[in-house]
Amino acid sequence: MTSNKGFHFYTFGILRRLYDWVLSWAHKKYSSVALFILAFAESSFFPIPPDILQIALSVSKPKKSFFYALIASFGSVFGGIFGFFIGLKLWDYLKDFFFTYIPGFTPAIFDIIKTKYELYDFWVVFTAGFTPIPYKIITISAGLFGISFLMFIIASTLSRSLRFFIVATLIYFFGPKIKEFIDKYFNLLTIIFIILLIGGFMVIKYFM
């Protein structure tokens, strides 16, 4: 019994503190800059999605929800361009680092994505931009495999903006209720998020 409680507090307590810390950025001077940087980094190398900070900021200030969605969209698209550049020009120098330290990066996954690009290039990028599929894998592989840059920008802009603005719309109209829901079911939502993240890798491997 004790070990179960210990596991509970160790697993969810840290995440709860992280959520509260992220929420505190809503009251800091450079919160919008932090959101842009997080969205930029997540699209090319960083493992934590910007949705966490976007939701935290928007819940704290619902009237600025669409502004935060715009910031996240710009940051994510520009970060995707940087990821594209990594794949296009820097992959030979950085691939060992990504395969060793960045979750989800494996030669096998890249082989699978290459075959999918040959059939569904636009939809691969769009699906990854909108769903829990790790977007950074798609941005880097798009540059590596020579996907049309214009098509990549269009698919990225549409999918990432749609994702962030749906969140903004929900929070704008239901902000306080959403905050209450997150606070009440935080542990359950954390489990669901982890399942979706793992599912994203499975989609790449077996279905895309």
Q: Report the β-strand fraction as a percent range.
A: under 5%
Order of helices and strands: HHHHHHHH
Largest sheet: none
Overall tally of domains? 1
Give a quick set of tags describing it:
elongated; 8 helices; disordered N terminus; 208 residues; single chain
Describe what this molecule looks like in 3D.
The structure is a single chain. The protein has 208 residues and is mainly alpha-helical. It has one domain (2-207). It contains 8 helices and no strands. It has helices at 2-24, 31-42, 51-60, 65-101, 107-130, 135-144, 149-184, 186-207. Helix 2 (31-42) packs antiparallel against helix 3 and helix 3 packs across helix 7. The termini are far apart.
In brief, what are we looking at here?
With 208 residues, the protein is mainly α. The protein has helices at 2-24, 31-42, 51-60, 65-101, 107-130, 135-144, 149-184, 186-207. α2 (31-42) packs antiparallel against α3 (51-60), α4 (65-101) packs across α6 and α4 crosses α7.
Topology:
Elements: H1 2-24, H2 31-42, H3 51-60, H4 65-101, H5 107-130, H6 135-144, H7 149-184, H8 186-207
